[in-house]
Each structure stands twice: as C-alpha cells, then as structure tokens.
Fold this sequence. Notes:
single chain, alpha+beta, six-stranded antiparallel beta sheet, transmembrane, transmembrane helix, two-stranded antiparallel ribbon, metalloprotease, 376 residues
Amino acid sequence: MSALQSIAQALTPLGLLWTLLIILAATFMHELAHYWGARAQGVRVNSFSVGMGPVLLRRSWGGTEWRLSLLPIGGYVEIDGMTPDYGEKGEMIPARHGYAVLPAWGKVAILLAGPVMNLLLAFLILTTNFAANGVQQPVPGRASISQVVAGSRAEALGFRTGDEVVAIDGQPLPDQERVNGELVGGWTRVQRVLTAAGPHTFTIERDGARKDIRFAWTPTVNGKKALLGIGYGPASITTRLSVAGAAVQAGQTIVTAVPQVLQAFGNLFKRFFSLDLRQDQGVVGPVGTVQVVSQAVQLGGWTLLLIAATINLSLGFFNLLPIPGLDGGRILLVLVGVVRGRPLSLPQENAVTLAGFGLVMLLSLFVVVRDLSRFF
C-alpha cells in the first residue's frame, strides 16, 4: 500500500468535515472574544472574517466589515490601532488611536479574551458531558471492550461489548508500563499485541466469570492492515454527578491538563530543535487530528464533543505561549513595555513579531512533516 493510500484510508470525508467544523467554531469564538474585548472598551473593529484567504462575501454592520472567506481553517479580526499606520510615502508610523492608546490592562484584556474563550468552551463542554454521563474512574489493569464490529472476526471469536480484558497471553495487564520512555496505561498493551504475529490468548471477564479467547493473528493480510474488529479503552466505573459537581470536575480536569499540555508542548519544541520526527502521544498534526475525529464520529456524539473540548483546550493553551505573533507573545510585549516604562519601538516590535511568526510557521511545518512521516 502506498503512503497516499494509507493516508486516504486513515481519514474519512465525515471526519474531515467535522474537523473543519470544530476548528472553525473554536476559531470563530476565539476571534469573537477578541471582538467583544475591543468593543467593550470603545475600540473599533475594522473587519471580522470567518475563514481565511480570498473573501467570498462581505457585509458592513455596526462599524465592522463581516467577511466569509474561502478557506475554512480559521478566522481573524482587524482591531483598529493594533497594526501600524502608513504615511503619505508608504512608510510605517506608530498608530495613535484605538488599541494603541489603551492602557496596558486594556490591551491585555483584549488579547487574553480569545484564549480564555476557548478554555471556557472546553469547560462548558466538559461540564455538560460530566452532568449527562457522570465521571468515569479507571480500573487499573483492565481494558474494556467498548465496541465489537458486526460481522467481524472479533464477533466470530466470541468477543462481546462490555467484556474486560484482564490478561493477554497469560500475563495480567499491568496498571502502567513504560513504552519508548513514556509511561502509558496497561490497557494500551492490547494495541501493541495486535501488531505482533502469532497465537494470542485474551483472558476476558464477563459477568464475573473469566474466559480465554484463543486465536492466531497476522497483523497484515495481502499488504493491508488486519482488523480484529474491536474498540477498546481503559476499564472504568461511572459515578453520577450533579451539575455543580460536574462543573467542579470539569475545572479539575482542565487544571490537571495544564502540566500535561505544557509537557507536550515542551517535548514538541525539544523534538523541533533536534529535528526528531519520531511520533509521541503529545501534539498531533492535521492528519492525526482528522484521524482521531474520524474515529470519534464512529463512536458517537459524546466522543466527538470531548474531541471538541480537547481542541479548544489546545487552542487556548497554545495561544497563551509567550511566542511573539501569538496572543501570549503580544501580552508579553505589553508587559515588557510596562516594565521598561515605554513600549518597544515600531522596528523592534516588528522584528520580534516577525521572528515569532517565523518560528510558529516552522513549528507548524515540522508538525505536518512529522505527522505525515509515519505513512512513508
């Protein structure tokens, strides 16, 4: 199978559509928060675009030109006074109106509004999920079979939805184990075992009784990846929550995610500067995102909502990184100006912003290349 065929097989049209819709919605709300932050302080917003690239449709309302652009991969707002003005000869001169004349706290409020909106959306999605479905607490040393595909080999072998795998090839599943230097849940051993040819024995527990399912396994058949036909994840028990309890759990989930996200970004930068294209369980690229969403579409609406929460969390945290060109970088420049007693000069700010933008573009390219490298 060629690399292009592998990529096409990993993605689905519905997964691609949902990925674009989730990213577009997350970006729209991010930019809308910037818009509200500016208008609340009396600063005009010149334009607001849903999508990027060539403008397909534009309408003026409330002093803002609202645009629908060709590429559904994001959006932007043009806030008055955030970019330099131009003199009669085309030279750039510092703006003296709108955003430029706001106090430091006002500028930070506008810049902070976008990432905070994404974190708030993630909080609301998680709260809704926990209120509707409760919270699942993992049961160590077990993998739960969440789905058995009808007509699959797994169904013929006797696997059933709700089965719990407690041992593989006579070895109990560990609570955790280290794989390629990373600590992962023992339930992930299911995936690794199914990449190895040979006879396997899965010991499952169903209704309190244990049963061995034995089968011969070949990971590829006629050059194609073989599928057993099961969906699986960590075994868990469900605890029901009130709305208040769900909100507390959502907040705890986001707080707990902070060091994990920072570690993932740290690993990404480390691999970026060392040009290490090996895959990890941290930041994924566009192909990996569409692949995850494609799988979520098959599993149902709540799984898709949780993916939307994850994307909003990632967008919020990423934009808070102190890299010039991102919201966090702009906030850093404002704070540097406060400490110095005066803002950076226009050439200094442009140079720093250009360097930051270049870093973000190179980082994005690296993520895409790393994402595609597993297919080649």
